[in-house]
Design a protein that fits this description.
Strand content: 25-35%
Number of helices: 7
Organism: Cryptolaemus montrouzieri
CATH architecture of the largest domain: Roll
Subcellular location: Nucleus
CATH topology of the largest domain: Nuclear Transport Factor 2, Chain: A
InterPro entries: NTF2-like_dom_sf (IPR032710), NTF2_dom (IPR002075), Nuclear_transport_factor_2_euk (IPR018222), NXF_fam (IPR030217), TAP_C_dom (IPR005637), UBA-like_sf (IPR009060)
Shape: elongated
Pfam family, one: TAP_C
Protein name: TAP-C domain-containing protein
Length: 237
């Protein structure tokens, strides 16, 4: 269920704007989205900014269900994982969708950008923060959308909201530590110590925190080290 994809105290906000250089009257209007537009450049009142936040998974899902019907082609989606640590992931999803039953003569093509903060929850993950920006697709984007080869019907997603196709479901984490014997673990510790430059103690900690997944441990090390988050003692041998 989509409800389970969100933390019970999750926050959601939506912004909208017309593409630069276009005017409302010359574009496919975005009136539906303007009511809950939390663009802080336009919304300067702090109380209204607070009210426009959707708080809690029930409130978020209720709002998403009210959004116009839409038809998504996930072949146009672009996903960028910007942060990955054992305790948090941040990713952005960009793409286009066709808005249905919106009162336009021709269903408009919209462009969206979505930023999700995801954290571990139980045996899976959940969203704690969701920011959605919607605008009209540019002429070049519309051409790209229309020229994309149609995928199998199952990939075209029709939903009552833009959220359903892109919100990650709760994905079980399959622990693998119990399937690895001690000798193999020692080899993994030595290999990580060699490739990362960390000592054996910190290499073991990194592998333990990533459920003895060597590829994930390497990725986590690279990300945290790049941000300067690993203390000097980790490299003392």
């Amino acid at each position: 269920m989509l409800l389970q994809a969100y933390h019970e105290n999750a926050l959601f906000s939506m912004t909208m704007a017309y593409p630069y250089g276009t005017k409302d009257k010359n574009s496919n209007w975005l009136h539906w989205y303007s009511t809950d537009n939390r663009n802080i450049i336009r919304v300067t009142d702090s109380e209204r900014r607070f009210k426009l936040l959707k708080k809690g998974n029930v409130s978020i899902i209720s709002f998403l269900k009210e959004m116009p019907m839409s038809n998504h082609d996930i072949m146009n989606f672009k996903v960028d994982l910007t942060v990955f640590t054992p305790i948090m992931m941040s990713l952005t999803v960009a793409g286009m969708f066709k808005e249905l039953k919106s009162g336009h003569k021709q269903p408009p093509i919209r462009s969206f950008l979505r930023t999700l903060i995801i954290v571990p929850a139980g045996s899976g993950y959940c969203i704690t923060n969701d920011e959605l920006h919607i605008t009209n697709a540019t002429e070049d984007q519309v051409k790209t959308f229309k020229s994309t080869p149609l995928p199998p019907p199952a990939i075209i997603v029709t939903s009552p909201s833009i959220s359903s196709p892109v919100a990650p479901a709760v994905v079980p984490v399959v622990p693998v530590a119990n399937a690895i014997d001690d000798a193999t673990k020692q080899q993994m510790v030595q290999a990580l110590a060699t490739s990362s430059g960390m000592n054996l103690e910190w290499s073991a900690k990194c592998l333990q925190e990533t459920e003895w997944n060597f590829e994930r441990a390497t990725l986590v090390f690279n990300e945290v080290h790049k941000q300067g988050g690993i203390p000097a003692e980790a490299f003392v041998k």
